[in-house]
Amino acid sequence: MNTNPAQDTAQGRILIDLFLSLDGVAQGPGGTDEDTSGGFRFSGWQAGYPSPGTGPQVEAGMHGLDALLLGRRTYDIFASYWPLHTEGESGDIGNLFNRVPKYVATRDADIALDWAGSTRVGGNLAAEIAELRATHREVHVIGSLDLVHTLLAEGLFDELNLWVYPLLLGAGKKVFDDGALPAVLRLLEPAVTDDAGVTFLRYGRTERVPEVGTFG
């Protein structure tokens, strides 16, 4: 299987969207009770650090989205939140998320998926993602850190969108663990930093692997 069909414009793309600290922690950004596992003290760190640029960038990046691929924890959070938020400032994203198909990566074959348009995947993730690419033009993975680790390890993504906050959180679940597949990423557009110091980085995956050498 070609693990980088981004070069094939006839196929859809898998985009990973993540908020992380400067030291790479992406655990529990959105709320104080989102993810405190492992004794994590800073669940809700993104909500506690307002960023004027992040919201507009996120909304702009959702224009092509026609499916979501989520891990189990993120799915449960989204399923309890977005059906109730279809008006006001978050209404556009809420309506979009409610409308598009949702794919939930889990090994639990008996999971109850009550959010309309939800389907379980995870029996053969590589084959299922190939199917998603054939069916959709732009599948977004939001949060879902355990799933992201699998996608990074197997090279099953095309674009990596990172909002890096100028925070050091220390302990916590990191985006890049020792299992990531070595790869050279390509910066797709210049980095953008807002007034709060949050930097948006947009990378595309390539087939290149890091090379080594010695400075003369």
From TrEMBL:
Pfam families documented for this protein: RibD_C
InterPro entries, per database record: DHFR-like_dom_sf, RibDG_C
Domain Bacterial bifunctional deaminase-reductase C-terminal: 14-187
This protein's name: Deaminase
Organism annotation: Microbacterium algeriense
Phylogenetic placement of the source organism: Bacteria, Bacillati, Actinomycetota, Actinomycetes, Micrococcales
